[in-house]
């Protein structure tokens, strides 16, 4: 699905239940940093496009980037709203201070000036990135 196919009208069918898209389906960015960087940049470009589209949304929403420290194929862009599937809005992630060991990834994330939340999993660390001035935050207030 293309970003231009998404419905931001606020109508009955305009909702997102943890909708997301990946940009590196094959995990090519796992080879090295030079291979991963274009995919991360693509996520940021798409995030910024969605930020503009959602700016006029009549519905509350959440918008974030998820970066998997270990697996570029898992990096994704998310939109979430109230939806008929579940009473799961807003999504809330415990705010843990991010400790990013990969210097290239840390420098990239720091350059975005976004709020970063770290979640530790059995497979490694996940980083949730979002702009606190856009939509509903991922953390409890």
Automatic annotation (TrEMBL):
It comes from the Bacteria. This is Uncharacterized protein. It comes from Rhodocytophaga rosea.
